[in-house]
Amino acid sequence: MVITCQVLLKCSATFPGKPPTMKDALQLCVDAHKDELHSLSRDIWTRPELAGDETHAHDRLVRFFSQDQTWTVDGHYKLPTAFRASWGPVGGGGGEGEPALNVGFLCEYDALPGIGHGCGHNLIAEAGAAAAVGLKAALQIHTELPVPVKITVLGTPAEEDIGGKIDLINAGAFSDVDLVFMAHPAQQDVSFLPCVAVSVKYHGKASHASAYPWEGVNALDAAVLAYNNLSALRQQLKPEWRLHGIIKHGGVKPNIIPAYTELEFYMRTPQIRDLCNLKAKAEACFRAAAVATGCQVEISYPTHDYYDILPNTALANLYENNGKALGIQFPEQPANFSGSTDFGNVSYEVPGIHPFFYIGTDALNHTEEYTEAAGTAAQLFTLRTAKALAMTAVDVVCCPALLQQVREDFRLAKLKLEKLLAP
Ligand SMILES: [Zn+2]
Ligand SMILES: [Zn+2]
């Protein structure tokens, strides 16, 4: 933190008065667009769409950026409901072929089955758009930047289900991005966990449940035994590990011995290396139920694994300083709450931050009360967060030493993890 502040002071001396002026410009710009940004967020909130089906949200965001012709907008970018909006570069020494520093902001916009925007992803879309528009305003008033800077907004679908960011990483969408920013609504500060989804299918044999039950092989018994095995296992798991799921398919009729059942479970641990351990324990529970009932079992991992978020101390400290300047109160002792995000995987590709922001309700994510708050009271908090993200980007693009520090934090965090994972 001390090093960060000293570096900032040095930069202010090199470019006297300029970073604060840029921050003023970005705040004014976000405020000037607040009705438009609110309407964007409300439109997405009013028509909630599930992971991968976010066509309305995609079109709405593409329209938002396309109305300002200085943005280059690619709809359906690499995935059907992803998009990219790019602006710049500006600044730098003007040398031919001088590489630009590409600052990325991410928008999520998928909703949850049954409860709409109970995770507030409409606000993530709004915050990403607001931060990008704000940073653009800041860069426009000060093009004598040490390096050329451009902005990329990526619309990243399907966070709640398949992990759209991981598909985008695999498709190369992050390969030219240097820094990445997003923020997620929460009722408190949150530490996110790596997550994996497992699908388990039991195949038995149907038979009349009253006339010839002995002819059947009961796949529902296998599912119930597996569920109970996992419940027993849970007592022996570390307190911060999570294992939770549903019986997705439980049979078709009470008088038919179920020939097919399906379970879906999520597993989470704070460190990736523990996730392998938990997966092995859970698989033993699933297989034991198959052995006990005589069913065949199929175990598969249909979505990507979600990684933990690689911390970037330099960016986190800058964000906190900017947030405090805007009136955000960061708790001394962040509360512990478990969730997962595909931003974790992004954080292994590009230095970035994913702070959490209070939206004026004590309701919990993934509840109807949270959905209500995400569509009503959240504006002040969302735009304040967007400003803090863009101000953090201003700090880094104005100061090569800070950029170097951010990159060094990224390198060291990855190195530390590689050592932890080494056999
Ligand atoms: Zn979420
Ligand atoms: Zn969620």
From TrEMBL:
Transmembrane segments: none annotated. Belongs to the peptidase M20A family. This is Peptidase M20 domain-containing protein 2. One of its GO terms (molecular function) is dipeptidase activity. InterPro entries: Bact_exopeptidase_dim_dom, Peptidase_M20, Peptidase_M20/M20A_hydrolases, Peptidase_M20_dimer, Xaa-Arg_dipeptidase. It comes from the Eukaryota. The gene is PM20D2. It holds the Pfam family Peptidase_M20. Residues 199-291 form the Peptidase M20 dimerisation domain.
